[in-house]
Description:
Structural class of chain A: alpha/beta
Strand order of the largest sheet of chain A: 3-2-1-4-7
Number of strands of chain A: 12
Low-confidence stretches of chain A: 313-320
CATH class of the largest domain in chain A: Alpha Beta
CATH architecture of the largest domain in chain A: 2-Layer Sandwich
Shape of chain A: globular
CATH topology of the largest domain in chain A: Nucleotidyltransferase, domain 5
Largest sheet of chain A: 5 strands, mixed
Strand content of chain A: 15-25%
Mean pLDDT of chain A: 94
Oligomer: homodimer
Number of helices of chain A: 9
Helix content of chain A: 25-40%
Amino acid sequence: MTTDLVAAVDIGGTKIAGALVDGTGELLHRVQRPTRARESAENVMGAVTEVVTGLTDHPLWSRVGAVGVGSAGPVDAREGTVSPVNIPAWRDFPLVAHLAKTTGDLPVTLVGDGAAIAAGEHWRGAARGRRDALCMVVSTGVGGGLILDGRLRPGPTGNAGHIGHISVDFDGELCPCGGRGCVERIASGTNIARYALASGWRPAGADGDTTAAGVAVAAAQGDPIALEAFERAARALAAGIAATATLVEIETVVVGGGVSQAGDVLFTPLRRALSAYATLPFVQHLDVVPAQLGTDAGLVGAAAACWNSDTFSGQGPLGT
Amino acid sequence: MTTDLVAAVDIGGTKIAGALVDGTGELLHRVQRPTRARESAENVMGAVTEVVTGLTDHPLWSRVGAVGVGSAGPVDAREGTVSPVNIPAWRDFPLVAHLAKTTGDLPVTLVGDGAAIAAGEHWRGAARGRRDALCMVVSTGVGGGLILDGRLRPGPTGNAGHIGHISVDFDGELCPCGGRGCVERIASGTNIARYALASGWRPAGADGDTTAAGVAVAAAQGDPIALEAFERAARALAAGIAATATLVEIETVVVGGGVSQAGDVLFTPLRRALSAYATLPFVQHLDVVPAQLGTDAGLVGAAAACWNSDTFSGQGPLGT
C-alpha cells in the first residue's frame, strides 16, 4: 500500500484541528474539537485523541505515512514536548509520544505554530516560490516562521521565527514573556486595542467593539487616535521585520492573522515604516503581502513540515 | 597539480590583507597594505592588486584553486560588487570581476566581513563544532555573521548577520544608516565613548584616552558613568542577540572586536542583560564566549567561505 498522505494536527489555544492531506496540500478529511485549554493535561490530550481518532477511523487512513503537528509554543522538537503559553496544564507535555501511540507509531514531526504557518504559506500560499521569507501572524499574539534557502527553518527546537518576542524597545514595557518592548507587546491586536483605549479612544458604533477590529473600523473612518494606534503597531512590526531581514536576508514578508484583516489600515503604515527601518541596500526591496491560507495555514503547514522532514521517506512536495 | 590552497582577501576600511590558506586554516603567506580609503576607486583597487600580486608571485600560487573575499559591507554577492560604507569611492564596485582578472579567472567567492568572521570562528575559532551560532564584532562598528545548521549563512547577497543595524529602540536616535535605535548606534565603541562623554565622564589618566578603551579602564576602576555606559551598551547588545536567538535559534554567541577586549566590563553586564531579554525557554541557555581568532578572523573566514562555496570543487574543510 502506498503511503501518499500525511495526517496534520494543529493545536491552538481555542481549537484542535486535524486533517488528512495529500501531496498537493489538499485537505481530504477534517476533524475539529475545542481545546478545553483551562482543563487538565489529560483532558486537553483527550481532545487531541478525539481529533486523531476522527482521522484514524477514516478509510483513507491506510494511506497515511506520517504525522505532522504544529502546536502553540513554545515547543521542543528535540524532546517531542510542548509547553503552550495558553494551555497552562501542558508543561513539557510529551505530545509526540502520545501521538505516536495513537497513530500506530507513525513518524511524528513537531514544529511550532509559527513555523507551521510559514511552511503552509510557502507550500500553497503567498510565499510560494520564494526562497527566503518571513511569514507572520498578527492576531491576539504575534508569531512567525522562516523560510530560508527554499526550506522551512524550524530551528533545532521548532521555535525559530518567533518575531513576536524580539525587543524593538529595549527600555520599554515589560512583556508577559519576561522581556521588554517585545513586538507583540506593542503590535498584537490585544495591545493595539489597549493602547487606543488608554489614549482615550472609544468605539463609536452601537456594538461597542473595543477590540483591534473596532479600532480598525475607527481608523478607516479617520479617527486620529485609532490611526495612531495602528501607526505605532506598524512601526513596531516594521522594526521587527527589518531586523529579521537584516539578520537573515529575506525577500518577502507574508502577514496574516486577524489584525491583518484591517487591510490598508495596517499595510499602508507598515510599508511606510518599513522604508524607515529597512534601510541597508540588501533589505530595501522587501515585498509585504497578505497571507493566502487563512485558518488552514496551520494544517497545511503541519503537513508541509512533515513532508519536508527527514523522518518521512514519502515523496515530498518540498525540496523536490 | 593539486589545487589544495585558497587565496583569502580581507578588505577593511583601514587595511587590505591577503593570505594563502591551506585546508587546515593555516595562513601560509601573508601580504598587507593600507586601504587608502579616501582615495579614488582606482587607487583603492590598486592597493588590492598589490596585495593579490604579493600572493600570485609566491611559489605556492600554483596550488591555489579559488579566491575567497570578505569585504566591509554592504556587499552584493549576486552581482559581485561592494559598496563599503567606509570606502566612499567604491559604490557598486565590481570587485569580483577585478579579482578574477588579477588571479587568472579563478572562481571568486564574495561575502560581507561579518559573514567572513563567522565562517572563520566556526572553522578554527570559538564557534568550532557549534551547529547554530552568531559571531559578532563590537568595535568602531558592530557587525556579525550567522552559522545555521553547521554552515555559514551569508544570505543571497552575502550580508546576513548584520546585527549592528537592527533596531532595539524603535523610537530612538537616528542612525547614519537611516534607521533608528540600531544596536551599533548604542553599543559600538564610538557610541559607548560618545555616551560616556555626553554624560559627563572625563578620562582620569594622563593619556586622556577618550575612546571606549578609556571608558573601559574607568569602568574597571568603578567609575559610575563609565559603568553605566557599558551597562547600556550591554543591554542593547543583549536585546539584539536575544532577537537573533529568538528568530533563528542559536546556541552560541561569539563576541570579538576591540570593545570585547574590555573583558568582564562588557561580558558581565552582557550576560546579565541577556537573561533579561532572552526569556523564552529555547533561548535561555545561550553561551556567550569571546572570539579566538583576533584580526585573522577575516582572512581565515574568507578562506572558509570559499571552501564552503559551491563554486569551488576542492576538498573543503566545511560541510565535510
